[in-house]
């Protein structure tokens, strides 16, 4: 068994991604990563007794979309794997947030088809370079130190069997075996932040770190995961100790300010985001905590979408302006 196939086989077993006899829905765009995933899983299907189905998405956003559909169908026909097609009727009309809306649409369609088929899991072709891009994008957008982690191998029902393989390794595999793939020109369009990270930032960081970027990120990710574990266990313990002074909608200030600062931040952040469903930038969280420590009087702190934090008599509560509440009902 060649190296890449052996590594995928080990990943399937080590991370318990599939069970013997699983029905696997494989998302295939026609690009090198997803085509390699399909061929690799097909090669291992008899070993693990897998039943494969392919799902291809036509976003109707590029002139090459129909050719991509034909290509994926040809690949599936050659492998005797059934190809399911989903076509978007609305994404072509979007003018903002297109990539996020396309991801949400693909996720929704994947879950719906997997349910219809009785598939055990949905395999995506995210690989090691995607992992690096995801980590850097989180950092650029301001993720908390405890959440600087990439994608997981398994996020049921989704699995990512290629996270230890690089894009170049997958293309080398396809080239060695004379297996074609399709190039998506939009992957080089600089209007998308991920493309700039992929094509501009990562090469520069690799050069400046003497090709040490993956190891630097892995080290930071490990430390971040340890911090997240500590915060989760600490918050659970403090919530238990706080008892009646803490609930889903209120928080008592006096016991809060005696906690370690990281735990204070985590408790207030959870109180707000879980109740409001809105984002809370770290700088706003720090401003709120500074106000909390310095002003024992009555005050309000504005949040997104009409939500606010109210302080009175040593109690923090979350409230929403009636006009905003009515608009959401």
Please tell me about this protein's structure.
By secondary structure, the chain is of the alpha/beta class. It is 53% helix and 14% strand. The protein has 12 helices and 10 strands. It has helices at 3-14, 32-48, 65-79, 98-117, 128-141, 167-176, 193-208, 213-242, 253-256, 261-276, 282-294, 322-328; strands at residues 23-27, 51-58, 82-87, 121-123, 154-155, 158-159, 250-252, 299-302, 307-312, 315-320. The strands form 2 sheets. It has a 6-stranded mixed beta sheet, sandwiched between helices. Strands 7-10-9-8 form a 4-stranded antiparallel beta sheet. Helix 1 (3-14) crosses helix 2 (32-48), helix 2 (32-48) packs across helix 6 and helix 5 (128-141) crosses helix 7. The longest helix is centred in the C-terminal third of the chain and has 30 residues, at 213-242. Mean pLDDT is 92; it is low at 325-329.
Keywords:
four-stranded antiparallel β-sheet; elongated; 14% strand; 329 residues; alpha/beta; six-stranded mixed β-sheet
Strand content: 5-15%
The major beta sheet can be summarized as: 6 strands, mixed
Mean pLDDT: 92
- Helix content range: 40-55%
How far apart are the first and last residues' alpha carbons, in Å?
A: 58 Å
Poorly predicted regions: 325-329
Strand order of the largest sheet: 3-2-1-4-6-5
DSSP summary: helix tally? 12
Secondary-structure-based class equals alpha/beta
Brief overview, please?
The chain is of the alpha/beta class and 329 residues long.
Blueprint (SSEs and pairs):
Blueprint: H1 3-14, E1 23-27, H2 32-48, E2 51-58, H3 65-79, E3 82-87, H4 98-117, E4 121-123, H5 128-141, E5 154-155, E6 158-159, H6 167-176, H7 193-208, H8 213-242, E7 250-252, H9 253-256, H10 261-276, H11 282-294, E8 299-302, E9 307-312, E10 315-320, H12 322-328
Parallel strand pairs: 1-2, 1-4, 2-3, 4-6
Antiparallel strand pairs: 5-6, 7-10, 8-9, 9-10
Helix pairs in contact: 1-2, 2-6, 5-7
